[in-house]
Amino acid sequence: VLHARNLLFYTHPRKMWYPDAELMHVLNMADSVVSMCSMFAQQLVADGVREELVEVALVGADADLFQPHTRGTGKIGFCSGYLPRKGGDRILELVRSMPGHEFVLCGKKWPDWDRFAELRALPNLEYVDVPYDQYPEFYEAIDVFVSVSELEGGPVPLIESAMCNVVPVCSNTGHAADIISHGENGFLFDTSAPIGEIQSLIEKAFTCTCDVRSTVEHLTWK
């Protein structure tokens, strides 16, 4: 394998059983290390990967599948499968603190979360677990996409929802800052931002007049 041409795809940092220094050594043996976002490309170089090996390739979305719609439903959406890093506690706190807004959570395995019953009991939260080919209908039903993840390589639903003209309000991790121009086509917040700050940005998102799709149309698989 080492004598072949190697391109390594790097999604995001994670703790593994081997030392970080060993990972950097292996990455430096590749012909190219492709990062999902600028944030972690810069981190790789800072951690010791040779700068000339590192490049960024943002993922895309199917522009024919994810069609734009006119905002106006007033709904706020989350889209991810359940993992501890997806910020379940913050989702619960956010939905509970904004009783005047309707939220929809789309994704797999959320019933496995030990606080899911609390979340599901909130009257302003709808939970759906639908096949991927029904995701366009989910995005069509929301005006604002929110991601409170602590760590992402993406999130991919940020691109998909933006293709559907949904305004993103996302934690600044993964490719969020590559896609969102804060205050123009969406809003960014620090991963440790207080709930009150996220609430304020969501309210601002409802006043956004940007054609969000036009800012991500270059990110297609074509």
Give a description of the structure:
- There is one protein chain.
- With 222 residues, this protein is of the alpha/beta class.
- Helix content is 28%, strand content 16%.
- It contains 8 helices and 9 strands.
- The strands form 2 sheets. Strands 6-5-4-7-8-9 form a 6-stranded parallel sheet, with helices on both faces. It has a 3-stranded parallel sheet with strand order 1-2-3, with helices on one face.
- Helix 6 links the parallel strand 7 and strand 8.
- The radius of gyration is 18 Å and the shape is globular.
- The two termini are 30 Å apart.
The proportion of strand residues reads: 15-25%
Q: Classify the helix fraction into a percent range.
A: 25-40%
Which descriptor suits the 3D outline? globular
Largest sheet: 6 strands, parallel
- Give the class from helix and strand content and strand pairing: alpha/beta
- Please state how the strands of the largest beta sheet are arranged side by side: 6-5-4-7-8-9
Number of strands: 9
What is the CA-CA span between the terminal residues?
30 Å
SSE order, one letter for each helix or strand: EHEHEEHEHEHEHEHEH
